[in-house]
């Protein structure tokens, strides 16, 4: 193990050890390397840090040259939330697609291959999987990141994902405890609230976390949500009742507890990140995730100093901070000694295979059936009805079917349409008319994402289908709205491979 810099006292080292900060750039800045030498034990990576697998491997090697047992974490769920392939879209479908297939061995294989790719780049902690039961279809931040709305399905696939990922030597971080699925508010913007009784929570939200714990998940991430049945005063991330009383004592979990990003407004706008971090460690969290939006040395020093000051003021027990730091080091030791899979175990096409299996094909009444659909022989016009991306996904990752159709049907043309300003119904009708005009005589492929959550999108489709009932509709979100169009393809996610699988059906090309 790398020797820590002399002159750094134990309390300060422990305060640094519990932080999981991010940074900007594709090489490690000097300040980060210096803090690793002083006790910082974890680093969080995001899309801004990754240009290629080789560059990522060089970056993690640079970090380990300073501290060989550093935990390198990433938010790589596959599907809509990808950091490895932020510029192109993921080679793996996300949880909702895997839940639609409902083959736990397939989920295990996908997670294993994703973990293998992470491990080969030097990443050893993945803030995944999402174990949230997507019980509220209006949910703006979970959606296709969930395996589904069925509790038992979510539980068995969460366990399969955990074991698959960790069999590749990458620690799983099951999230967002105690369950973020029954919310209609995005915690990046405000504090969500779940108003159900404790019995419903125990039977529904907690089941996938019990399965993850039984499967040996090495980490659990807390949610910035208020659950009055468990704690009427503090969100889960800051609640001793939830993190220590429920997760530790009742569920028997003894691994690392990581917070969701402390700069998210659910915490930052109410408590501030310094006070929030102190309260989180006091409540039972072991690691403070910060860096999705705040990624500089000043933030690290502010949090370090806040933790040290809280201990010295008697607000945070020193033994609690020491215990948290020890759990970080324990996970780092596991990550440094876990085995790696044999080369023969690699399945590089497992993601596309899973995306193909996840497709659901239907047709509107009176327009035949999927079996009678004739693949397009001429390049179509792809009208992407584009919602505002949520922060967890980000707006830099491409999605849709246009890029894949261009490969299969050269000459395909595309346009993007959004709600704009004004009443949603009018905005949708306007977007639909604009798409019709842009398409001209070409066959239209309309691509949507969570039509059921966006009235303007439904209105745009109404306008398109009234004029062109032969339109093909591709739903790349949660397929809650009734299927319509000459062919309706539900991909259960917007990963690149989901777009590829849908494009193959539209073009009548499979198995490539």
Description:
The protein has 512 residues and is α/β, with parallel strands linked by helices. 40% of the residues lie in helices and 11% in strands. The chain is built from 18 helices and 14 strands. It has helices at residues 10-17, 30-38, 53-66, 95-101, 104-120, 151-166, 198-205, 207-214, 240-250, 265-268, 273-283, 297-312, 318-337, 350-358, 402-408, 424-439, 455-467, 496-507, and strands at 19-21, 42-45, 71-74, 125-126, 171-177, 219-222, 256-258, 288-290, 360-362, 381-385, 413-417, 444-448, 472-475, 487-490. The protein has a six-stranded parallel β-sheet, with helices on both faces. A six-stranded mixed β-sheet has the order 9-14-13-12-10-11, with helices on one face. The chain has a two-stranded parallel sheet with strand order 1-8. It is globular, with a radius of gyration of 23 Å.
Strand order of the largest sheet: 2-3-4-5-6-7
Strand content: 5-15%
Largest sheet: 6 strands, parallel
- From the spread of the alpha carbons, the general shape counts as globular
Mean pLDDT: 92
Structural class of the secondary elements?
Answer: alpha/beta
- Residue share in helix: 40-55%
Q: Ends: how far apart? A: 47 Å
Radius of gyration: 23 Å
Question: Helix count?
Answer: 18
Low-confidence stretches: 1-7
Number of strands: 14
């Amino acid at each position: 193990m790398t020797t820590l810099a002399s002159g750094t006292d134990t309390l300060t080292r422990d305060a640094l050890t519990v932080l999981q900060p991010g940074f900007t750039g594709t090489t490690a800045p000097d300040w980060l390397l210096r803090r690793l030498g002083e006790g910082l034990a974890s680093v969080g990576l995001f899309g801004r840090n990754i240009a290629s697998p080789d560059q990522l491997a060089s970056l993690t090697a640079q970090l380990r040259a300073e501290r060989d047992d550093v935990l390198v974490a990433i938010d790589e769920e596959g599907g809509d939330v990808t950091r490895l392939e932020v510029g192109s879209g993921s080679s793996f479908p996300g949880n909702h697609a895997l839940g639609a297939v409902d083959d736990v061995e397939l989920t295990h294989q996908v997670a294993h291959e994703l973990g293998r790719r992470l491990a080969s780049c030097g990443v050893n902690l993945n803030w995944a999987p999402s174990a949230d039961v997507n019980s509220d279809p209006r949910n703006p931040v979970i959606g296709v990141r969930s395996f589904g709305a069925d509790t038992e399905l979510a539980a068995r696939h969460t366990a399969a994902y955990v074991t698959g990922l960790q069999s590749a030597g990458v620690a799983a971080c099951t999230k967002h405890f105690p369950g973020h699925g029954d919310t209609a508010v995005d915690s990046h913007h405000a504090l969500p609230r779940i108003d159900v009784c404790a019995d419903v929570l125990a039977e529904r939200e907690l089941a996938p976390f019990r399965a993850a714990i039984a499967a040996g998940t090495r980490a659990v991430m807390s949610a910035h949500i208020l659950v009055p049945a468990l704690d009427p005063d503090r969100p889960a991330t800051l609640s001793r009742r939830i993190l220590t009383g429920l997760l530790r004592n009742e569920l028997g979990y003894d691994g690392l507890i990581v917070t969701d990003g402390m700069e998210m407004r659910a915490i930052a706008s109410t408590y501030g990140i310094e006070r929030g971090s102190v309260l989180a460690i006091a409540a039972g969290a072991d690691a403070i995730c910060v860096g999705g939006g705040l990624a500089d040395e000043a933030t690290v020093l502010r949090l370090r100093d806040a933790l040290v000051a809280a201990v010295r003021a008697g607000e945070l027990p020193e033994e609690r901070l020491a215990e948290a730091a020890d759990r970080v080091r324990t996970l780092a030791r596991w990550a440094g000694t876990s085995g790696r899979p044999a080369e023969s175990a690699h399945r590089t096409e497992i993601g596309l295979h899973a995306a193909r299996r996840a497709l659901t094909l239907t047709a509107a009444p009176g327009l035949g059936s999927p079996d009678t659909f004739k693949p397009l022989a001429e390049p179509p016009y792809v009208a992407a009805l584009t919602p505002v991306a949520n922060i967890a996904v980000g707006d830099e990752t491409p999605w849709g079917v246009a890029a894949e159709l261009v490969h299969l049907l050269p000459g395909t043309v595309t346009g993007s349409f959004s709600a704009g300003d004004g009443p949603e119904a009018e905005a949708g009708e306007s977007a639909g008319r604009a798409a019709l005009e842009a398409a001209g005589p070409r066959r239209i492929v309309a691509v949507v994402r969570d039509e059921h959550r966006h009235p303007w999108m439904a209105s745009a489709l109404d306008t398109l289908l009234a004029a062109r009932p032969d339109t093909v509709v591709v739903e790349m979100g949660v397929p809650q709205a009734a299927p319509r169009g000459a062919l309706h393809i539900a991909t259960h996610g917007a990963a690149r491979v989901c777009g590829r699988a849908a494009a193959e059906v539209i073009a009548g090309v499979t198995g490539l």
